[in-house]
Write a structure and sequence with these properties.
The protein is about 20% helix and about 40% strand. With about 280 residues, the protein is of the alpha+beta class. The N and C termini lie far apart (about 50 Å). It comes from Hymenobacter edaphi. It is found in: Membrane.
Length: about 280
């Protein structure tokens, strides 16, 4: 079984190498990462995702893969290109500023539908839409034609699926959020961390700090799906992390063009033995 997985991983890495234009010898050196902080010191890496684009701990069951490449050009620190495993259809081409990809979009970002039709083409500057923004329906018809400056809308026209002009443009995007707790991944994981401590068995003891890195989907109804551990300092903490995720209340789902959509959340649970000892002594 292990040999088959290695062979499969090598085959997928070879496909990614073709997309990159790398030689077979070069792809043999490409590291597969699960969490993005494993990119430290790497110039290029691969990351696998399932059909809902939730990161995977290995190539097994992958629907898509990301090629993560250090750029260091005109403010773009990372370039990310995403392809389907079957057919190698491109899904994403994005530039990011910052130490890790995925956090601060910068320069041009393009996304495609699985069938190959362009979904959107947006220019960013340090995380804010800046310049032209166009989005499209799966049919290829224009959905939004917008001009932005430093995150502010300068001009915007939006159209229905039949091409009719809309009186008001819908909201472009929003993140999944907990009711009354603010939007975004950070707010969700702050709440999760409090729950995590409750699920760690009282008998558990460890002398050093530990981190459990998880990812999960929030579907278009706001329910958590496909929660998984991507990396862990101590497998004994994995069950507590997953139970905390499962106990999340229903979230307000992310939206795109004012329509609810699924999204992916990813982050860490922290175990600090000093705090655990202090809590026992109180």
């Amino acid at each position: 079984m292990a040999t088959l997985q290695v062979q499969r991983r090598a085959a997928l890495a070879g496909a990614a190498g073709l997309a990159l234009g790398l030689s077979s010898a070069a792809t043999a050196q490409v590291k597969v990462v699960t969490r993005l902080d494993q990119l430290e010191g790497q110039r290029v890496a691969l990351r696998y995702l399932d059909r809902n684009l939730v990161p995977l701990p290995s190539a097994a069951g992958a629907y898509a893969y990301d090629i993560l490449r250090r750029a260091d050009s005109l403010g773009v620190r990372w370039r990310v290109r995403r392809f389907t495993v079957q057919g190698h259809q491109q899904l994403l081409d994005a530039g990011y500023a910052g130490e890790l990809p995925g956090q601060v979009p910068h320069a041009r970002v393009r996304e495609w539908y699985p069938g190959g039709q362009l979904r959107e083409d947006v220019s960013y500057r340090l995380g804010k839409p800046d310049g032209p923004m166009k989005t499209y329906y799966p049919s290829g018809k224009l959905r939004r034609d917008q001009q932005n400056r430093a995150g502010a809308v300068v001009r915007s026209e939006c159209f229905g699926p039949d091409g009719q002009a809309l009186d008001v443009c819908p909201g472009y995007r929003s993140s999944a959020k907990l009711a009354g707790k603010g939007a975004g991944q950070a707010a969700v994981f702050q709440s999760l961390q409090k729950q995590f401590a409750q699920f760690v068995p009282k008998s558990y003891a460890r002398a050093t700090d530990a981190v459990v890195h998880v990812a999960f989907q929030v579907d278009s109804l706001g329910y958590v799906q496909d929660a998984r551990v991507l990396a862990s300092d101590d497998e004994q903490l994995n069950a507590a992390a997953l139970e905390a995720v499962r106990k999340l209340p229903r979230l307000a789902p992310a939206t795109a063009e004012d329509q609810p959509v699924s999204s992916v959340l990813e982050g860490d649970f922290f175990y600090y033995p000093a705090r655990r000892t202090a809590a026992k002594d109180e």
